[in-house]
Amino acid sequence: MFKQPRRFNLQAILAFLILILPFSLVMASDGSTTVDLTSSTYGIIAIIVFIIAYSLVIGEEFLDLRKSKPVLIAAGIIWILVGMAYNTIGEPHAAGIAVKHNIEEYAELLLFLLAAMTYINALEERNVFDALRAWLVSQGYSLKTVFWITGLLAFVISPIADNLTTALLMAAVAMSVGAGNTTFVALACINIVVAANAGGAFSPFGDITTLMVWQKGIVQFEQFFALMIPSLVNWLIPAAIMSFSVPKGHPKPIESEVVVKRGGYFMIGLFLFTIVMAVSFHNFLHLPPVLGMMTGLGLLKLFAFYLKKRETGTPEPDSLEDSAIKDAALNAEAPQSYDIFSILARAEWDTLMFFYGVILCVGGLGTLGYLALVSEMMYSGAGIMGTGTTGANIIVGVLSAIVDNIPVMFAVLTMNPDMSLGQWLLVTLTAGVGGSLLSIGSAAGVALMGQARGIYTFFAHMKWTWAIALGYAASIWVHMWINADLMDTAITSAKAMH
User: Fold this and answer.
1) In terms of CB atoms within 10 Å, which end of the chain has fewer, N or C?
2) Measured distance CA(85)–CA(463) in Å, rounded
3) How far is the CA of 321 from the CAs of 314, 324, 329, in angstroms?
């Protein structure tokens, strides 16, 4: 129907749209053979379906429609189209092989996050985070001191926990201390978002994007720490600039004491041991890190059994008076026993289902051939707009401020461009901290807009985007400087080379 030049132009236009819009960055199954079906009816309908679904995701806050719902439906429709497309070219089994690989990728991510989320929820139930917040609130620090302490703690805690949980915890401290002072609360929330995202960028446990890079085997666990100083610079520069605008004053100390429940401190140690297991399984046994996390989840559930027995056990009466007390207690409503499965159920299932939808959607689009177009434009030759690999990786970070960084990083990982270790670390850094440029660019920012509704807003954050951008640029420069020897270091991981 179309002449060849016309067909090429259509592909170029679609590739350009893929690049600049959230529906863009797509993922295909690793190692699978894909054909170019981007100009077919199936390919065009698939990209339209994804555009509509991701538009609904972006409008979640206004539509009150959970983000997982549209992408789950879109994933099913896209893979129907993929199956039909491959049937028409005489390869009926190719689509099934590709989707199975996508599901395997998701299964690893799901189980890893499920174990991590359960630990975080268990620590929260034991009042570990509340105790830390109460201690900070009761100290009577100045507003500027609280600004720096909450930012520093967000940077330090997020590599171990995750940037979302850390941001919510530190924002609760800032809001308690600065109640009524909207200027301080807004600045503190911006600082916390930047710090949490920066802290999560140099640890596989700090952000979903770093976790994906680690599980893919491209960057080893200890190699992420090369990003610690660039990440610190990314936070310190905007924090120092914003600190001059923090109001002066010493708010009245809030007397608040929270006691950590039985087993809380032991759970902290168990969580750290689980992280060590995940790292050791991956580094020394060459097993998926999720295996270590699930083993650790089993240990947590075993400890939960101990807590259940301790907290529901009733001592034998030593006297008639004790017996009367016991009878009264038995006649009263029995307290709920400790149930680890109720804590497991509190995982962010909407987020976990969203990841499924994203992986399957972008996997389907990649199987149709869109990924090859994007990869060629961004990483082949001089790269996009002649900026080369470095420029392409910097643009990835800017895109992650507009779009969720999950599909962005999935796209880059599946493109698997021929990059040095230094460049892979660069794109890990930019995808992780680029979301700080706008409040909607990261899960931490979106969550805090809800927690400090009307105070920490899109425009309140955007007022300081210029300062955050300075930190973004400086962190890239510092990485290129201190990790210059890694910019030419080849990736040796067998899985990455595959």
Assistant:
1) N
2) 47
3) 15, 5, 12
Give the model confidence (pLDDT) of 125-142 as tens digits: 888 878 877 887 777 788
Collect all residues with Cβ–Cβ distance below 8 Å to 401 and sequence separation of at least 6.
434, 435, 436, 437, 438, 440, 441
Residue closest to 423 by CA, chosen among 378, 468, 371: 378
Per-residue pLDDT of 406-437, as tens digits, reads 777 777 887 778 888 999 999 999 988 998 99
| Alpha-carbon gap, residue 363 to 130, rounded angstroms | 40
Q: Which two tokens stand for residue 344?
A: 């497991």
Helix (H) or strand (E) holding 181: none
Q: What are the start-end ranges of the H helices in 126-251?
A: 128-137, 143-157, 163-177, 182-200, 208-215, 228-243
Q: How far is the C-alpha of 236 from the C-alpha of 151, rounded, in Å?
A: 9
pLDDT digits (tens, 9 = 90+) for 458-482: 788 989 999 999 999 999 999 999 9
H/E stretch holding 74 reads helix 68-88
C-beta atoms surrounding 458 within 10 Å = 14
Please report, to the nearest 10 degrees, the dihedral formed by the alpha carbons of residues 224, 347, 194, 142 taken in order: -120
d(CA 163, CA 169): 10
pTM for this model (two decimals): 0.70
**Which of helix, strand or coil describes residue 173?**
helix
Helix axes 208-215, 94-125, angle to 10 degrees: 130
**Which of 27-31, 188-192, 276-280, 360-364 is the least confident region?**
27-31
